[in-house]
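Escalated from tier 1: adenosine-5'-triphosphate holo job.
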Amino acid sequence: MTTTTTSTRTTVLDATGVTMRFGGLTAVRSVDLQVSSGEIVGLIGPNGAGKTTFFNCLTGLYVPTEGRVSYKGTVLPPKPHLVTQAGIARTFQNIRLFSNMTVLENVLVGRHTRTKEGLWSALLRGPGFKKAEAASHERAMELLEFIGLQHKADHLARNLPYGEQRKLEIARALASEPGLLLLDEPTAGMNPQETRVTEDLVFAIRDQGIAVLVIEHDMRFIFNLSDRVACLVQGEKLVEGTAEVVQGDERVIAAYLGTPFEGAPGAEEVAEVEAAEADAHGDTSTTGSEGDAK
Ligand SMILES: Nc1ncnc2c1ncn2[C@@H]1O[C@H](COP(=O)(O)OP(=O)(O)OP(=O)(O)O)[C@@H](O)[C@H]1O
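Tier 2 regenerated the structure:
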């Protein structure tokens, strides 16, 4: 359902009650998240909180055990290529470039969901195909210019420095002309200078009308960047709000420091396990544990 959230903004992504279980482990538990056009939303949480699993549910890599994911009012089919076709593109935590292809070819690969020319047209290399090929090439070069890598168009991807490989992944994702871009730890492994450049790049992407949802562990980066931040802890959304709200929430601080807090996700289960362990050791006291809420 596409709803107007402010005067001009519309809901691009609407995830409702998304739950993902792997056997006995609930990696994501009943998470709701909306992203509107023109917005940058940050997704934070300690290691293992379920952030990437949630991304995988949004992009069709996983079929959520429960819940629903809609893009611009249409429920998404759980197939990655159909999700890309619908308008959601992503990058991965671990860079997934075609290392033996050139920089330009990597971006061209990202355009395949937007080229209409079929197999026969490609094999016969007719005028329709040549025209489409030229248009794709032009668009790919524009994107390389946008990320500042046009001068390396014919370099092999594997020869790029790490920071540039991350940028190339973003260009490849943009080549599919998304309305929503999901970035999974875009500054991982970057130095502070590269991180600043990436921050400007994400703002520029947003200014082109693309909504952005970004997972990051670099708190300065995420709080500078995001209009709104959601924090996952043990698969549950603990809090969502502006940088000030989330930064000031004691539960978020506690979750990062591993300090237990009242009502923490999983706290009941931890208490049960502790009680069972204490019973097994013939100890009647269940207190005294300094274990975290994980
Ligand atoms: N395919 C899978 N099968 C079984 N368990 C999984 C699978 N994928 C993720 N998990 C588990 O789900 C939980 C959440 O993992 P996930 O990678 O989503 O966390 P994360 O918040 O992205 O962590 P990080 O910040 O370290 O990347 C972890 O306990 C992880 O081991």
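The chain has a mean pLDDT of 85.
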